diguanylate cyclase
Amino acid sequence: MNLSFLKFHRHLFLILLLVITSIVAITTHLGTLKEASELDWFDAVGEAGITLVTLVWIFFILISRPSGKVTNLLFVGLTLTHVSMLLDFIDEFYFYTSDSAWLGTIESLPAPVGMIIMSVALYWWHQEQMSINAQLRNTERYYRDHSLTDFVTGLYSAKYMKNQLQREIINAGIHQQSFVMMLIDIRKFDSFNRKYGDQQGDTLLRETAQLILMNLRDEDLACRYASDRFIILMPNTSVQTAQTVATHIEQAIANLAFKIGNSAAAQYQHVTSCVMECNGEDEYLNVLDKLNDRMLATKHDINNQASPNQLIHSKDVA
Ligand SMILES: Nc1nc2c(ncn2[C@@H]2O[C@H](COP(=O)(O)OP(=O)(O)OP(=O)(O)O)[C@@H](O)[C@H]2O)c(=O)[nH]1
């Protein structure tokens, strides 16, 4: 048990002690002890239990929370509830003459007031937790962004994609729901690199990544898989929808007027894409192998269909 917060709440413990001793002092001073035969032990034990439990709650609140508004409200609410319970418990042993009958009358008042205060405190506690969660999410995103994203494109890395793919495969197996994987490969990227240099190659990778992202939905996950290849994980998607998205991406990239340095001339690049449905039966490495095989087959088909002129996909436009 970590008691490190206790030192911040010494004043609250003192107030609690003061409240309890005042109540015990007032009631025992104004009340008259009942005969043993008048005592209802069953009631007394039950009320003692409730009284102790409210003290335990106060203790746990104080060791779990830093000082502040929410802690103070919880403390006040629980202490008022405890006061009612304590008065109720003590009046099992004491009766009050008509002069001090008010003690019996007020005993049930603090509890409802305390409960209202606790409700307010719980609302603030909820608000506080929401803002802590938001901060934790941001912190988590910060670390994730630095360890699992690709430096060149800003997309998620292959490592992150593999983790997500493994999760998606398990989900697909459990819920019997398939998902779609899309692979996108920039054509002739090697010759682009050699012609214009790695720096221009990096810029092209970055702009391609941006165009891919622009065509995806919120739930899709785009990652840089390897050199000039991108993988998109598409949950709850049909192959037809994925193919439509792939066509949009191909068109968007084909229409990107990529400028080399200060030159006004535009370079037009093309990508090859393929999509594949996964049903959660394969291991993630098998899924990736199949997807790569599909890309090879797609490239093979394109090369077979294309005339010799069309094989040169990028063209300079002045
Ligand atoms: N600029 C840059 N180039 C990279 C990076 N990572 C890999 N490459 C290069 O990407 C090229 C990939 O070449 P290939 O795999 O042959 O791809 P390709 O030329 O597009 O071949 P096809 O897909 O068959 O058209 C290689 O020249 C790599 O050096 C990177 O981060 N930045």
